[in-house]
Amino acid sequence: MFRVNPDNLDLILLEEAVWVLVGEVNLPSYDFSLSQFFACRRPWNRPEQITAIGRFGAVTNYDELYQQLAADGIFLVHSAEQHLLASELPRWYPLLEGLTPKSFWFSEPPDIAILEQTIGLPLFLKGSRQTSRHKAALSIIRSSEDYYRAIKAYKENPIFHYQDLVCREFVQLRPVPSELTEKIPSSFEFRSFWWRGQCVGAAQYWSTSYDWNQQEQKAALLVASEAALRLNLPFVVIDVAQTITGEWIVIECNDGQESGYAAISPFTLWQNLITKEKELFGNKKLG
C-alpha cells in the first residue's frame, strides 16, 4: 500500500460511457492498458461533476484522495466509508455472517487462551485488510508457538502493524494441484467482480491449473451474488471458495477499484462493465 498524488493520475473517458482515473502500479495482475483495446478520450472540457472508477492500486490515503478529487468535481465511485466497508473485514463481516467463517478482531493481540476458547485451534490469522503475502506460517496457526511467532512478525511489519488483528475459524477448503511453497495451499477459490450488483467478471483466484464446471460456477456465484447484494456497493470484489464438504463460502471482500484481476480477462471485465453502464444510462456518463 502507498500514497497517491491526484496530480499523477490520468482521467480517461472510456467508450463514451465510463470515467476511469488511472495510475499504474507496475503489477501485471493489476495494470491494464485500456487505450490499447477501447476508445479512450481525455476531454479538456469535462462536466463540472463526474463519477470515476479509480484504478490506482491499494492506497493509504483514500479518504484524503477522495476529498482532494471531490474538490475538483471528480467523485470516486466509493466514498471513504464505502471503501472501508468493501476493504476491511470488521466492516463487512457483520453483513455477511452465515456466508463466511466465524471471525473475531482485536486492536491488540489477545492471549492465545482466549482464542482457544472462542475459535479453537487451528485458526486463520490475518490483518483486517489482507494476509501477509499469503504466507502459511503467518496465517495458519496450529499452536501457541505459531501464534506468538506470527504476532511478533505482524508487529514488525510496516503494513500490518497498524491493522486490526483478525482471527478466523479455520475451514478446510477443497485443494487444487499446486507446488509446495511457503504460501497458503491453493484451494478451489474464485474471484468475482460486481458492478452495480451485476457480475462483470469471474475466474480462478490462484495461478495454478483448475476450473469450475457449470454447476459449480452457478453455486459459487449464487453465494457471491448474495454477498454483493448485502454489501450494496457500486464496485465490489467477492472471493469465494468451496470447502471439502462441498459448501461455498465467502473468503474475502474488497474494493473493485484496488483489486487485481487474478485469472479474469481484464478486457472481458471492462467490456462487460461498459455494456452494463450503457444499458443502464445510455449516453449519460457514469454518475
What does this structure look like?
There is one protein chain. With 287 residues, this protein is of the alpha+beta class. It has helices at 62-71, 80-87, 89-96, 112-118, 144-156, 214-231, 266-281, and strands spanning 10-14, 18-22, 40-41, 50-55, 74-76, 103-106, 123-127, 140-141, 165-169, 189-195, 198-204, 235-242, 248-255. The protein has a five-stranded mixed sheet. It is globular, with a radius of gyration of 20 Å. The mean pLDDT is 93.
Provide the succession of SSEs: EEEEHEHHEHEEHEEEHEEH
Q: Percent of residues in beta strands? A: 15-25%
Q: Summarize the main sheet.
A: 5 strands, mixed
Query: What shape does the CA trace take?
Result: globular
Q: Tell me the distance between the termini.
A: 27 Å
**Overall average pLDDT:** 93
Give the count of helical stretches.
7
Helix content: 25-40%
Keywords:
globular; 13 strands; alpha+beta; 287 residues; single chain; 5-stranded mixed β-sheet; 4-stranded antiparallel β-sheet; 23% strand
Layout: helices, strands, pairs:
Elements: E1 10-14, E2 18-22, E3 40-41, E4 50-55, H1 62-71, E5 74-76, H2 80-87, H3 89-96, E6 103-106, H4 112-118, E7 123-127, E8 140-141, H5 144-156, E9 165-169, E10 189-195, E11 198-204, H6 214-231, E12 235-242, E13 248-255, H7 266-281
Parallel strand pairs: 2-4, 4-5
Antiparallel strand pairs: 1-2, 1-3, 6-9, 7-8, 7-9, 10-11, 10-12, 12-13
Helix pairs in contact: 2-3
